[in-house]
Amino acid sequence: MQEQQFEDLKKRAGEESSKADSLNSLNEIKAKFVGKNGEITALLKGMKDIPFESRASYGKNVNALKEEVSAIFVKKEQELKAREREDRFKKEAVDITLPGKRFEVGGLHPLNIVRNKIIEAFSSLGFEVFEGPEIDSDYYCFQALNIPKDHPARDMQDTFYINDNILLRPHTSPGQVRTMENKKPPIKILSPGRVYRADDDASHSPMFHQIEGLVVDKGVSLCDLKGLLDEFVKLIFDEDTKTRFRPSYFPFTEPSVEVDVTCCKCHGKGCGLCKNTGWIEILGAGVVNKKVLEMSGIDSEKYSGLAFGLGIERITMIKYGISDIRTLFESNVKFLEQFNRR
Ligand code: DAH
Questions:
Q1: Residue 250: CB within 6 Å of ligand 1?
Q2: H helices of 202-254, where?
Q3: Is the minimum distance from the CB of 305 to ligand 1 under 6 angstroms?
Q4: How far apart are CA 331 and CA 49, in angstroms?
């Protein structure tokens, strides 16, 4: 009778646990049999009502039953754990053959790339960088550069005036004056920065960038300028780029030159970029006018100077074959990405 009852109980524990589909439901079933209020626990508690003679064998049988039932649960628990682990593996499986996620990284603007290249090239030739203010006075922008109030050269630079005396600098040349006022020769500086002119078409922008260069020392001459710029264009364009000087006029240099380089596209043969001349103008330069040296407190009997000024946009457009300056200011990512290909 008791044997039958135990057998039934064992059978039920087996059946019920076989239906458990998670560790939680298995724990509930386990509690029903071997928990504090479970059936087998109740059997053990009922021992006191068993006649003394059969108590020992009853206890043994209940304990044996408990062990067998517990073993069923342990087996089921292992089975469920293995299944849960496998399900998790399936769910978390990663296809390592898929391409990885690419993180977008910013890059330098072409104007900054070229600006840095120019500064690097001149630094290797011993130049330091000095940045002047973008809003400057008539004195620094014009008068101290030998461009007096009624001078026609002012017309070349359609200047944005803030008032009669204060303006947005139309070139970086005031950097020369500010340097000479503050530094004793020998001087070898670059002055890069934004400049402003009321001009707007495919090759002019109301805001653009220039780099000014100034050398002041004993005995510097036009020959040094030629040597310096020859070296520079080789670093910026390529090794076999040549320079040529054409006479020009700037009030702050005497003599003044315009500097051409052999076309970087056709190497001097003639093409659309150089308008079939084989040459492209890249900058203005000259020997610093004695008046300019004197106005800034430099003894022009003892020292002489070289100056040059170049447009970063112009060099960038020549170097990369860009035909419209406006593309440099449109923030079109597709266009800008090309300059930072890794
Ligand atoms: N400031 C001139 C311009 O903006 C460029 C220039 C020409 C600068 C000759 C110089 C120079 O230093 O010597 O057009």
A1: yes
A2: 222-236
A3: no
A4: 92
For 87-94, which contacts have Cβ atoms below 8 Å and span 24 or more sequence positions? Answer: none
Task: Order across the sheet with 207-217: list the strands.
Answer: 128-129, 187-196, 207-217, 304-311, 279-288, 253-262, 243-250
pTM check: above 0.85? no
DSSP category for residue 76: H
Rg for the chain, CA atoms, rounded: 44
Maximum Cα–Cα distance across the chain: 134
Q: Which residue has 């135990």 as its token pair?
A: 6
Distance CA 283, CA 260 (A): 7
pLDDT digits over 271-324, tens only? 888 889 999 999 999 999 999 999 999 999 999 999 999 999 999 999 998 989
The count of other CB atoms within 10 Å of the CB of residue 8 is 10
Closest CA to 311 of 281, 278, 283, 339: 283
Pocket lining: 307 vs ligand 1, CB cutoff 6 Å: yes
Please give the single-letter amino acid code of residue 114. V
In whole angstroms, what is the distance from residue 230 CA to residue 332 CA? 34
Cis ω for the linkage preceding 186 (within 30 of 0): yes
